[in-house]
Amino acid sequence: MLSLTRTSRSPFRHVVLASVAAALALTAGCAGGKAKKDTAYVARDVETLYAAAKARLDRGDVKQAAALFDEVERQHPYSPWARRAQLMSSFSYYLARNYPQAIQSAQRFLSIHPGNKDAPYAYYLIALSYYEQISDVERDQKITQQALNALEEVNRRFPQSEYAADSRLKIDLVRDHLAGKEMEIGRFYEKTGKWLAARIRFQTVVEQYDTTSHAPEALYRMTETSLALGVPEEAVKYAAVLGKNYPGSEWYEKAYKLVQRHAEGVQAS
């Protein structure tokens, strides 16, 4: 299974995030003088407050930057700056690895400004925030499914965008991850003799994740469980499919030998 560790994720994502965040910051213009008190609890004019938030972000103090961008929206909710601050807040929370808050901020932006030109970026931030929370296959995969749904949403809504290009790469990784989870459960059921339960899991991979790296093994396991369940004709069918699609794979060789041994055993009896 392809790894979804942070180091394996596309560097293109960071380029997109940084470039769009910079664009959002620049649209604010020369945002006033330096704040006298750089905290989220002092009433200030919107330009000074936004500048303080941006300065924190530039220094890498992403948690404080997020709080200050939130404060822009709280103190000046009807200004154009509030709209920019919502996305910058989401971006800052994302950098701080506070992914639930990043999602919440981006979703709030979309609920208020669904047709805004920066909506694609908001959808992309939501997708990335789910993606970064994907855990290994031994854990619950609810977040993984949410990541897949969010990435597919980006691709569906903005298919020609740079965000969609990166999302499509990640969709393949996420689907492989979900297939890996099904395989893990199926192998566990198989080891404990729960052949039908195992077969259902492997069949899910064959039918729903047939383009992933787990498909050849899933077909072999379908051959294996079919024989265990006493339906050799099904085993032959899956071995044939395996041979047609993955003729040089180790899984086809194993499936062929398995079917042959079974046929010889039947003849001998």
In CATH terms, what is the fold-level topology of the largest domain? Serine Threonine Protein Phosphatase 5, Tetratricopeptide repeat
SSE string, helices as H and strands as E: HHHHHHHHHHHH
**Tertiary shape:** elongated
Assembly of the depicted chains:
single chain
Radius of gyration: 25 Å
Q: Assign the CATH superfamily of the largest domain.
A: Tetratricopeptide repeat domain
Determine the structural class based on helices, strands and strand pairing: mainly alpha
Give the name of the CATH architecture of the largest domain.
Alpha Horseshoe
- Cα separation of the termini: 40 Å
Outline the biggest β-sheet: none
Report the strand count: 0
In helices, the fraction of residues equals: over 70%
- CATH C-level of the largest domain: Mainly Alpha
Query: What fraction strand?
Result: under 5%
Low-confidence stretches: 1-12, 26-37
As for the number of domains, it is: 2
Mean pLDDT across the residues is 86
Number of helices: 12
Secondary-structure blueprint:
Blueprint: H1 11-26, H2 46-58, H3 62-75, H4 80-95, H5 99-112, H6 119-131, H7 142-157, H8 162-191, H9 195-208, H10 215-228, H11 232-245, H12 250-268
